[in-house]
C-alpha cells in the first residue's frame, strides 16, 4: 500500500498542534507560512477530516486531531531513530525538550547540561521549568520529550525512572521561637503559621502526605510557586515552611534559616526522569538519562 501522506505533512501537523498557530509552526520548522498552511490543508484533504478548529489565529485540535497526534508523533520519532541509527553514539545529534521541576532545574540540570555539552556537543537541549504536575502534563501533551519530576507519577502513559533521592525539611528563621528547640512536636507545628508551595508541586504533595492524619488543621497563610519567595518570607518573618534540602542548605549554613528537628516526619523523596511510554528507545533521551545517573553516582550532589 502506497502512503499518500508525507513525514513533512505530519511534522507540520505536529508543529501546529504544539504551537496552536500556523505562523509559529512555520517559524519552528523554518518553512514559509504558505508552505506550512498548504501542507496542513493537503493532509486534511487526503485524510478527509478536519484536524483543527480555527478560532481566529489560534488552532485547536478536533477529535480526529487528538486521535492522530500520538500516532503522528510516533512516526516522526521512528523516522528520527532511523536517521540516528546510522551514526555512532559519540555522534548523536539533535534537539530535545526537557522539562524540570524547580529544585532539579536549579541544582541538577545545569551540571547535567554542562556534561552533555562536553560529551555530546551536537545535542541541543531546550528547558522548561514547571511544578511536577506541569511537567507531567507537558510530557503527556508532547511539550517535553523528557521530564524530571519530584515524587511519583502513577499515570500509565508515563514511564518513570528514579535516578536520585533527597529529602524535605521544615525550616524557620533563626529568630523564630521554635529555632531554639531541640525537638519540635506535631502539636507545635499545628500552632504555627505556614507558607508553602502551591498544590501540584511535588514538594507540596510529599509534605501533605507526610502530615496526613497527623496534623488535622494546618494554618497555611500563603502559597507560592517560587522557592526564593518562600525562603525570604521564612527568613524575615514568623513563618515555617517545608522545602527541599538542596534549596535551603546554603541559608542554613549562613545562619539565616534553621532546620527544625521533627522526629515524627520522614520526608525523603525521589527525583525521576519521565517520558511517554510510547516514545521509548530515543538515543538522545537515553543519553541524557544515562548522564544524569552517572553524574549522581560520581558526585555527592544529593546528601
- Mean pLDDT, as a whole number? 87
Largest sheet: 9 strands, mixed
CATH architecture descriptor text of the largest domain:
3-Layer(aba) Sandwich
CATH level 1 class label of the largest domain: Alpha Beta
Helix content class:
40-55%
**What percent strand?**
15-25%
What is the helix/strand order? HHHEEHEHHEHEEHEHEHEHEEH
- Classification by helices and strands: alpha/beta
Task: Give the termini distance in whole angstroms.
Answer: 58 Å
Kindly identify the CATH topology of the largest domain.
D-Maltodextrin-Binding Protein, domain 2
Stretches where pLDDT is under 50 for at least 5 consecutive residues are none
Rg to the nearest angstrom? 23 Å
Domain tally:
2
From the spread of the alpha carbons, the general shape counts as elongated
Report the count of strand segments.
11
**How many helical stretches?**
12
Family: Belongs to the LysR transcriptional regulatory family.
Protein name: Transcriptional regulator, LysR family
GO molecular function: DNA-binding transcription factor activity; transcription cis-regulatory region binding
Keywords: DNA-binding, Transcription, Transcription regulation
